[in-house]
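Q: I'm a student working through a structural biology exercise. My instructor gave each of us a protein and asked us to get a predicted structure, then write a short paragraph describing it. Mine is 5-oxoprolinase subunit A. I'm not confident about reading structure output yet, so if you can add a plain explanation after the tokens, that would really help. Here is the sequence I was given:
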Amino acid sequence: MKTKININADLGESFGNWKMGSDSEMLSLVNSANLACGFHAGDPLVILRTLEDAHKHHVGIGAHPSFPDLQGFGRRPMQLSEAELEAILFYQLGALQGMAQTQNMTLEHVKPHGALNNMACADIQLARQIVNAIRTFDDQLILLAPACSALLIAGEEAGLRVAAEIFADRAYQDDAQLVPRSEKNAMVHGAENSYQHILKMLEARAIISTSGKKIPCNIHSICVHGDNADAVNTAKYLREKLQANNYALVSLKKMF
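A: Happy to help. First, here is the predicted structure for 5-oxoprolinase subunit A. I'll explain a few features afterward.
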């Protein structure tokens, strides 16, 4: 029997005349797309076109909300009140949900972006605030959260369906957090290296840090960052190798 796994990517991150990634190609390869909602990237036309492509390729869609940080691509930490955080999440989820309805699509999941995600992975109070906002908006949404993170724990505590993800193109520290992008060993480069990176974790059912430490966890989804120069080649290679290795690639809904 084949083991189910999901491949996701962060997409819809262009803005105006500024282009990020190769969304159309990525949407032919992944199972789930996390769409920027305009606060770190994306604009109404980019969102609409990405939704149209996702619909054409039968790709599940989810919101990729962030701090209001267009200039910093959502990667700068911010301190917001709980009320303001809830409001910006409602605003972004509502915008994407409304646009999705015009394409006869519905949101399947939510995956916080950038600094918001990284901070919630380490801060259980912030993680619970995010989870409470998601649950209030729609308690049927799947939370896509990094494996072994406080965000994943908060989602499970709240009774949401939680999909644990690992990153094909990012390295891990011994505490299961990502190596900061400012460090030279933060990224995993090349399709084969990315495949070996995730295969070791899938087989061990654990995050494996740069030091070799194994942190046991469930794994439901693999993220390939759409802004990585190797993204298309990596996604294509992972898809082919995983299928050849007896994995069934499915949507997040079919993981549960």
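A: Here are two points you could use in your paragraph. The domain at 3-255 is CATH 3.20.20.370 (TIM Barrel). Residues 82-101 form the longest helix (20 residues). It's a good idea to check both against the output above yourself.
Q: Great, thank you!
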